[in-house]
C-alpha cells in the first residue's frame, strides 16, 4: 500500500489503500480503525474515511467493541465476505460448469449443462448466458452484486487482448471473445485457458496445495497442461505454455495447421475412443472410456490390457518430456486420467523411473469438475478484489 510521504495518481492511491485495509481484514481477525492505521501505515483520518466508505458499500461491517487500552472501547471491524459475489465458469469438453461464490471463494450456487454443439463458439456463449440466468433465477442472487466472471476456454487465450489465438474446437481464433461475452452478460469478464484455471484450482484448494512447483496434466477432448513455478502460473511469451498436446508423441500423419496437436490426435479421449472401438466388442456411451478399458483389462480381456499398456506408455512419454525440462516437485494427473487409479499411477511411475533421472511425485487430481470453477473464481477475486464502486 502507499503510506505517508508517497505520491501517485489519486484514484490509484485510494484503490491501493483500500486493498491494504481489506487485506488486513481478510486474514479473519477483527480489528479496530486504530489497528488498521498501524498495520497499513496510513493516517487515522485516511483509514476512517475509507472504512466508512466501505461500510456504506457493505464490504466492511462493525461487529461490536474491543477491550479498552486507556480510552474509549474501540469499535471492531470485519470483512463481509457475503457483500458481493463472483462467477466462475469453465468448459470441460462439451460440459459447462458454472458457479457463484462469495468473496472468500466459497461456492454458493452451482450449475452444469451439456452443450448440444460443443464445437460451436456461439453456442458456447449462449450456454454461459443461459447458465448465469438460470443460477441467478434459482438462487435469487442479485446480479448487481456480482463483481465479474472468470471464464475458462479451450485453446490459447490472450488475456490482455481478450482474444483466443488458437482454438480449433470453437472457431474463436482472433475474435474479441471477452468483449462479446461482456456485452452479452453485462459483467466484467476474465478469460483464461481452461486447463490453467483447473491448475490454479488444484493449487489453491486441491492436491497441489503447498507445492511451489507443479505441472497439472489434463487429458480430455484435448491434452494440455498448466505450469506453476515458484507459486506463480507460468504462461510463456505468447501465453501458450502448457500446450503439450502438440508434443510429437504417436504418428504425426498429415495434419493441417489449425488442427489438434499430434499427441492429442493420438492419445486424447476421442482418439482413445476410436482405438477402443476397433478392439472392444461393446462400448458403453456416456461412461468414461478409460474406466471401461481399465475395467476390461482387470477382468482379463487381453486386447484391453494391450491398449491400456499403450496408453500408459504414451502418456508416460509426455510426462517424461515434462519432467526432463521442468523438474517439477509434483505432477497432477487429471481429466480422464483419474480413472487409472493407483495401480495405473504406479505403472506410469515405474516407466518414468526407468527413463528419467528424477521422477516427480505423481498424484491424481482431487477436485474433479470443481477445479476449473475454483480457479476461475480465484482469477476474478485477484482481478477485482474490491467493489463495483471502486472500479467505476
UniProtKB/TrEMBL annotation:
Keyword field: Carbohydrate metabolism, Xylose metabolism
Domain of life: Bacteria
Pfam family, one: ROK
Function: Transcriptional repressor of xylose-utilizing enzymes.
Annotated family: Belongs to the ROK (NagC/XylR) family.
Stated name of the protein: ROK family protein
Organism (species): Paenibacillus baimaensis
Amino acid at each position: 500500500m502507499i503510506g505517508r510521504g508517497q505520491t501517485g495518481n489519486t484514484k490509484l492511491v485510494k484503490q491501493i489503500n483500500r486493498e491494504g485495509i481489506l487485506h488486513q481484514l481478510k486474514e479473519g481477525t477483527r480489528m479496530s480503525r486504530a489497528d488498521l492505521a498501524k498495520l497499513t501505515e496510513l493516517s487515522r483520518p485516511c483509514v476512517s474515511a475509507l472504512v466508512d466508505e466501505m461500510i456504506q458499500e457493505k464490504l466492511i461491517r462493525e461487529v461490536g467493541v474491543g477491550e479498552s487500552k486507556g480510552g474509549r472501547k474501540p469499535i471492531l471491524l470485519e470483512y463481509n465476505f457475503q457483500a458481493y459475489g463472483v462467477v466462475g465458469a469453465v468448459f470441460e469438453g462439451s460440459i459447462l460448469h458454472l458457479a457463484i461464490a462469495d468473496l472468500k471463494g466459497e461456492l454458493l450456487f452451482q450449475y452444469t449443462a451439456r452443450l448440444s454443439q460443443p464445437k460451436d463458439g456461439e453456442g458456447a456463449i449462449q450456454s454461459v448466458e443461459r447458465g448465469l440466468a438460470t443460477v441467478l433465477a434459482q438462487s435469487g442472487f442479485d446480479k448487481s452484486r456480482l463483481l465479474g466472471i472468470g471464464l475458462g476456454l479451450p485453446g490459447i487465450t490472450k488475456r490482455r487482448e481478450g482474444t483466443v489465438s488458437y482454438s480449433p474446437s470453437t472457431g474463436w481464433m482472433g475474435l474479441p471473445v471477452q468483449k462479446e461475452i461482456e456485452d452479452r452478460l453485462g459483467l466484467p469478464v476474465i478469460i483464461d485457458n481452461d486447463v490453467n484455471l483447473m491448475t490454479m484450482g488444484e493449487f489453491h484448494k486441491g492436491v497441489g496445495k503447498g507445492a511451489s512447483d507443479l505441472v497439472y496434466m489434463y487429458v480430455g477432448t484435448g491434452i494440455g497442461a498448466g505450469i506453476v513455478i515458484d507459486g506463480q502460473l507460468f504462461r510463456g511469451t505468447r501465453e501458450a505454455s502448457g500446450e503439450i498436446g502438440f508434443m510429437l508423441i504417436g504418428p504425426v500423419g498429415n495434419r493441417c495447421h489449425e488442427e489438434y496437436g499430434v499427441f492429442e490426435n493420438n492419445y486424447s479421449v476421442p482418439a482413445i475412443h476410436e482405438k477402443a472401438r476397433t478392439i472392444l466388442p461393446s462400448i458403453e456411451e456416456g461412461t468414461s472410456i478409460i474406466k471401461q478399458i481399465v475395467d476390461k483389462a482387470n477382468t482379463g480381456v487381453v486386447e484391453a490390457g494391450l491398449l491400456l499398456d499403450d496408453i500408459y506408455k504414451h502418456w508416460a512419454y509426455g510426462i517424461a518430456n515434462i519432467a526432463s525440462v521442468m523438474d517439477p516437485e509434483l505432477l497432477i494427473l487429471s481429466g480422464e486420467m483419474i480413472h487409472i487409479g493407483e495401480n495405473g499411477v504406479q505403472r506410469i511411475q515405474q516407466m518414468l523411473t526407468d527413463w528419467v533421472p528424477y521422477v516427480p511425485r505423481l498424484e491424481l487430481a482431487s477436485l474433479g469438475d470443481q477445479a476449473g470453477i475454483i480457479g476461475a473464481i480465484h482469477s476474478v477475486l485477484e482481478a477485482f478484489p474490491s467493489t463495483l464502486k471502486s472500479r467505476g
